[in-house]
Write a structure and sequence with these properties.
14 helices, alpha/beta, Flavocytochrome C3, Chain A, domain 1, about 525 residues, five-stranded mixed β-sheet, globular
Length: about 525
């Protein structure tokens, strides 16, 4: 294990963070790497919960070009074609490299990789592991590889608080140890954020605890530009039970033939419009419209896959049984839930942000790869492809970045980030209110009055908090405000962003939205959905 300051600090241990850390340690000059994670290594990431699988054109009937066409179609005309080409071209080799690391994907009786079909994919190209435990298997393989790499220094149970920027130069980051509550400054020449998305901003979500959008908030306070914050994807089929987060019912179950029906057994999604395998935004809105009228939505797997569900989807089967449901004999109650964020910290195709020395990758980043709506099972592939790509970009940039100095445990700078009498976590009732506001007014369908009222209430909360020190709950409030502002500004419907008062896209090519956080008290309240905008901090 390495000691002393690291050239590069990676924050987050999902697929993107682990892939990047591994590349940093093994490629180029074999730089010392600090890998900081808020929980156990890989344990609190959305990646570890991913059921659907990894999309890659590995079959003779498929091709990277076909995969690219499907990805672009899902993105609502906003996805960057150059990045899609990189994803679909490099994806197969990254998957094969993962297999060489020891990842065990499901195979056919003849030993070939078993490829499934999911919504908006034109070919079966989804790899699964143990049916519906793909994310856990991918994380296992990467975690073992990372733990065996002596150049990676792993710091678990530690939460990044802020970037350490001295006289305009990034010099590392500040983090708090969860066990000791000690605050420590970690010196690094470059920082890579791989912290995941802001799923916990919504009352009904599949995101595990801790995904408050911390990376977005940390980058925003450092002056980084943000992009496409209004685009939040809602997974159509979370298990409709009283848990937080809601358990995911994999889309692959619909790919295997399960149908979405109402309480009378009637199809909820029009087969003429793609049915169960239409894009996620369309399926989720169809379910939402039925649910808000007081109906029920059920996923009927009794005929297909039928009794095979216990063997083919053991995770979903065990999950249902745990909640008193036997999917072999009764339909599964489901509901849409916040699942993935296409927006985040604005980056180029190599993960570089607008702050020198800062990179971002995975769900925290917004490169434009997914456009307005992510194609199913492209998120794990994104981490596998763009994590190493960002790592190589960092390695090329290291000679021009300042050398790290030394890590410190104390000091005025570190103590300034300790939540004391003035701060601390937000009250649980405040957190609940934030999440409820976003679910009710910034959810699957949006309109001006609801968005304006939501933003006013969230801004009032921010004013009432004053200058308390930042922590994960305050990050949640900041990101909630930013998403709401972006949703209010985009007066059109595009991909996952649906405005009932503007149900159609605007004429002409769609344009991305950008936003910056203005210094607190600056009075700058201007914003635009098509130009860089400043939102008061």
């Amino acid at each position: 294990m390495t000691t002393g300051p690291s050239r590069v600090a990676v924050v987050g241990s999902g697929v993107a963070g682990l892939s990047a850390a591994l590349e940093l340690a093994r490629a180029g000059n074999r730089s010392n790497v600090l890998l900081l994670t808020r929980g156990a290594l890989g344990g609190q990431s959305a990646s570890s919960l991913a059921q659907g699988g990894v999309a890659a054109a590995l079959d003779d009937s498929d091709s990277p070009d076909l995969h690219a066409q499907d990805t672009e179609a899902a993105g609502g005309g906003l996805a960057r074609g150059d990045l899609i080409q990189i994803l679909t071209r490099d994806g197969p080799e990254r998957v094969l490299a993962l297999i060489r690391l020891g990842a065990r994907f499901d195979r056919t009786p003849t030993g070939e990789l078993a490829l499934g079909l999911e919504g908006a994919h034109s070919r079966p190209r989804i790899l699964h592991a143990r049916g519906d435990r793909t994310g856990a298997e991918v994380i296992r393989a990467l975690r073992e590889a990372v733990r065996s790499e002596p150049l990676i220094r792993i710091v678990e149970q530690s939460e990044a608080l802020e970037l350490d920027i001295v006289e305009g130069v990034l010099r590392g980051l500040v983090a708090k140890d969860h066990a000791t509550h000690e605050v420590r400054r970690y010196s690094a020449s470059a920082v890579l954020l791989a912290t995941g998305g802001p799923g916990r901003a919504y009352l009904r979500t599949t995101a595990p605890p801790g995904l408050n959008g911390d990376g977005i908030a940390i980058a925003a306070r450092a002056g980084a530009r943000l992009a496409d914050l209004e685009f939040v994807q809602f997974h159509p089929t979370a298990l409709d039970v009283q848990t937080d987060p809601l358990p995911l019912v994999t889309e692959a179950l619909r790919g295997a033939g399960a149908l979405l029906v109402d309480e009378r057994g009637r199809r909820v999604v029009d087969p003429a419009e793609g049915g169960e395998l239409a894009s996620r935004d369309r399926v989720a809105r169809a379910l939402w419209n039925h649910l808000r009228k007081g109906g029920l939505v059920l996923l009927d797997a009794r005929t297909r896959p039928g009794h095979r569900i216990a063997e083919e989807f053991p995770g979903v089967y065990a999950l249902c049984r745990r909640h008193g449901i036997d999917p072999r004999t009764e339909p599964i109650p489901v509901t849409p839930a916040a699942h993935y964020h296409m927006g985040g910290v604005d980056t180029d195709g190599e993960g570089r942000t607008t702050v020198a020395g800062l990179w971002a990758v995975g769900e925290v980043a917004a490169s434009g790869l997914h456009g307005a709506n992510r194609l199913a099972s492209n998120s794990l592939l994104e981490g596998l492809v763009f994590g190493p790509r960002a790592a190589r970009s960092i390695l090329r940039s290291l000679p021009s970045l300042p050398s790290p100095i030394s890590d410190t445990r104390t000091g005025d700078m570190a103590r300034s980030h300790v939540a004391g009498d003035e701060g601390g976590e937000l009250p649980p009732e405040t957190v609940l209110r934030i999440r409820t506001i976003l679910w009710e007014h910034v959810g699957l369908e949006r309109e001006k009055a609801g968005l304006s009222g939501a933003l006013e209430e969230l801004d009032t909360m921010e004013v009432e908090l004053g200058n308390r020190h930042p922590d994960s709950a305050r990050n949640l409030l900041l990101v909630a405000r930013l998403i709401t502002r972006a949703a209010l500004l985009r007066e059109e419907s595009l991909g996952s962003h649906y405005r009932s008062d503007f149900p159609l896209p605007k004429e002409g090519p769609p344009r991305r939205s950008f936003m910056e956080l203005a210094p607190r008290g600056s009075g700058d309240d201007g914003a635009s959905p098509v130009r860089p905008a400043r939102v008061p901090g």
